[in-house]
Protein: ABC transporter substrate-binding protein
Amino acid sequence: MKIKPVVATFLLLSPLTACGSAQAGDSTTVTVTVGYQSKTINTVTAGTLLRSLGYFEKELDALHDGRTYKVDWQDYATGAPITAQMTAGKIDIGSMGDFPLLINAARGKQLGKPTHLVSVTGYNLRGGLNTIVTAPDSKLASLGDLKGRKVSTSVGSAADGTLVRALQRAGIDPDKGIEKLNQQPAVGASALSAGSTDALSQFVAWPGLLTYQGKAKALYDGAELNLPTFHGVTAREDFAEQRPAVLEAFLKAQAEATDYLDAYPVAAAESVAKATGLPPEVVYLYNGAHGISTFDPALKPQLVSALKQDVSVLKAAKLTGDIDVDAFVDDHYVRKALGSGYAKRLAAAPAASASEVWPRGATETQSFKTPVELLKYVSAHQNGIRAAYVPDATTGTLWFADKAVWVADGDRLLPFVAPETARAYVGAHAGARTVTYAQALEQAS
Structure:
């Protein structure tokens, strides 16, 4: 990782260009522009949740450097426009997924406006943040069934990376074996509902949302790739060098928002849901106590390693050339912002997966050691369940209990996100069989 030298005092006091500059006629007022994606809920600790908590503004007020700071929060649907605004000098700090981060790095270098990855928001070490889904009544049951079919995704996104890698492992040429539709997530979701695409490969929170709404079902769990996926925070190099205290204030605030999410996952989910219009149950699927996402600002080596592996996918798609990931990653600011606590965050592991029930009217969820225990509880309280979540028996990816594929293996009841992994388990275990959710509930009770 690149470690920058301490920035000289004269840089801190020098005038800024673009968004971080003092407003005309007022040398004591500085506007900091933050680009975020409200509905990409893997970035909430640097966006939606952070904004609602007001932690960044509080950290800026605590600088006591004689300036008045204002934060301009700008909401975007994807990372691409954030990158465009950053390279134009109009956004100081942005958050986006791993593949868009690489494009951010490439565009910044290409245009002479370098940026740096300065922290991580949410991640999944196996790749469970991306999912391929089909229509609820689709007959497609495996990746092999996608051959010759229309598949919607957002080219250059992490979800596209998952699609490309998954198809390659299934022996399908991602360029010639399918008809790829390059669409924004909302457009792809509409196309799936209209029947104009056969499948949709997308990032958090679209697969969970469509499944929860009964508009889709999972075909492929991205965690089957066993490759980390994450979202992170990128900052313009000139802004970081000229306003290091401001960037450090942002990273301190992000860490505080992360701690809040960890301590109050239900309240955080409700807050994000209110701000985005997403169902709280969907937000909790990803951001809950045992959700698909783990939030931590530390730039973990395994995430940086995964980023390096992602470069080849973007190069093959002719979206970027070579990218110096080590030069792009800069942990100097987050280390300084978090001090001695950074080492602990860097070493922290994701929480163990567990089954959870969110009872109606409750401000806390209930955890269970096994899916069978959860099913017993649900069976006895069917009218009092807001949502029930279970981890995939092989990948650990959390999913809605009533949307999972269930397998009965003797007294064991095992949930799976996708039908193909369930079939693989049945094929390897004599006597195991798939059952409906209703049958699973009946057997558990």
